[in-house]
């Protein structure tokens, strides 16, 4: 799924929490456990992709205002049209 922006809805987060409560109570069915695993994976993938996007948009500068962004990151940013 690389390059795909994943989003998780508030409803999905609420469902994750609901299933977590049911698991804690010991009333989670096998079908719900499967659903919980899918939702958790989607949540984790979403967080990772959002974090990756944030890191890839970073520009590092020193105290004098010089760009010290690593070359690898600069190349990626140029490839994605973020940097000239």
TrEMBL record:
Entry keyword annotation includes Ribonucleoprotein: no
GO terms under cellular component: cytoplasm
Keywords: Cytoplasm
UniProt xrefs under InterPro entries: DUF896
UniProt subcellular location: Cytoplasm
Endoplasmic reticulum listed as a keyword: no
Name of a matching Pfam family: DUF896
Family of this protein: Belongs to the UPF0291 family.
The name this protein goes by in its record: UPF0291 protein RT41_GL001891
